[in-house]
């Protein structure tokens, strides 16, 4: 075993209200620059929907991520020689129209327009050409299913659904959607890094953050098509790719990343996971049904003395180990097993996990024309039990998103989530028969104590419980191999020039 | 006198500039050491222009360079009439492709507003010089037939003499003006190399063929250890 540490994340989709505060926090800090106006390192999508950039999940179109052929792992785009052959033109690169044309408004017109009969207006102008444009797309154009008959029907995850299931999604009384906030997954087997011909993308050994060196990037653009999540972005002004840096300057000073910190619904959790780097290759080649379980298996128990010893021998500090023991991410992903990776079939081993949304109890209009909660008609007082089978979002859709199509893996998660709800109801309202509760808990395999702990960490966690940030000690690290006194009165560390093109 | 400037002084100036400024720029401004791709803003015309341009010009350029590096082998190659015919005709064909592709690329930059906004003065200068150079080469290949042969007895010894720091311009000074302009044009491109997007020529990432897919960089432990996952 080769134990390494990864700063990892959980997004609890039940709590996401789709307010885009995370996106704005990120945009204001990192991407409010020429060339990156269109880029949102953090974005929030409505599902079902086509997302941003449009149809990013469709790897027939973008050829992102890995594929397994003859038991070996290959980039879906091209092999090494093929990638070099595509240097002159990357056939799978999205263009800016797959995102949207960035724009601003001619605010000056509001003040400077000559006196006339009409109210002056601030017309939209393109940030690419400076000409006035008709806005045809934006970063969250199909938000809340806006125009869903045009956009959401193209969602690749709907492909496996039957016509009745699709129709059910669109019935007004049963209309359903949820939000999917996305940032870089800081994968264990990142396809962006593997696709970069210049070797500009690397994983930080200590914390697993995936970064893109602006000095090494040579604008071959293979990472953009290579990342199946489309989370590297091409800065058309500087000719460099850029990506989410998990706010590492904030992490290094003990602060949560901006999107985490700003999250209104408090859906985000951040903590350390210990994993076995020697098993990455094996897990990335696991069969489609086993991908989720195999990835979970790669994550090791930070309480296990053997794991701790191996971690220490790899140079992982005691503070890091302590953070790993307190990690909320470990609890959601490994101990309770209620958080799942997004599209594990891309085989990048994403380290951002989602607790799938437990949508409200199914309700519809019955034959008599009355509003009725499904499952209650035949006298079943516990519609939550039936809700799984008659869920408003077909489990197949969620399986397509979170478990590479493995429906039973999604079912397991939902059984636990439902059991937590009923266990808490039994404790607080005290109207759940003991046998029903017992059956639920056995089925889902959690104890009442665990249910209470899940409820606590889901509903009322403190700031410190949500974000367990280890001291990264980067300053000491730099001081140990660079003489800080030499840099005194000099330019300091990091960039010594503005990241702009002089040629 | 102008021959000496054009065929002896300017080549040295161009090569010295390319080396000096090229290295200086690599050390001091690595951030901009690449081409500024505009495929993200416009892809369709770029496909036809860029792919055909690169393959055509690389083949033509490698023919020039191979003949320069291995003159005797090249002489044996073109000594046989059939091979000479095939070479000259494919050279002409490639030249047509290169000119056509360059015209597509120039028209694309002129007509697409997004790409136009992103095009620098140096880009325009480079496109112009490249177009003139390729057109000139195409014209010479048409008018002064069998360039693959006379190149060996004129330009090759001249460039060799430049390389050995004993410039002998008499190998080429008697040639028509347009031929000499084509020679000077080549060194003009060398001169422009460090100031323009041409630098991407030396950043071709051949290391990608054998490096491990994943790159993990450690800062703390052990000191500055660089290690690969796979």
What can you tell me about this protein's structure?
The complex is a heterodimer of chains A (503) and B (230). Chain A is an alpha+beta fold. Chain A has 23 helices and 17 strands. Chain A has helices at residues 21-31, 59-62, 80-85, 96-99, 108-112, 163-170, 191-195, 222-226, 248-252, 258-262, 280-284, 291-298, 305-313, 318-325, 328-335, 383-387, 395-402, 407-428, 434-444, 448-459, 463-466, 474-481, 484-487, and strands at 3-12, 43-47, 66-69, 72-75, 103-105, 124-126, 178-182, 201-204, 210-212, 232-235, 240-243, 268-276, 299-300, 340-341, 352-355, 363-365, 371-373. In chain A, strands 13-12-1-15-14 form a 5-stranded mixed beta sheet, sandwiched between helices. In chain A, strand 16 (363-365) and strand 17 form a beta hairpin. In chain A, helix 17 packs across helix 18 and helix 18 (407-428) crosses helix 20 (448-459). The longest helix of chain A is centred in the C-terminal third of the chain and has 22 residues, at 407-428. The radius of gyration of chain A is 24 Å and the shape is globular. The mean pLDDT of chain A is 88. Chain B has one domain (2-204): Fumarate Reductase Cytochrome B subunit (Up-down Bundle), CATH 1.20.950.20. Chain B starts with a helix and ends with a strand. Chain B is mostly helical. A two-stranded antiparallel sheet of chain B has the order 1-2. In chain B, strand 1 and strand 2 form a beta hairpin. At the A-B interface, helix 3, strand 8 and helix 22 of A face helix 2, helix 5 and strand 1 of B.
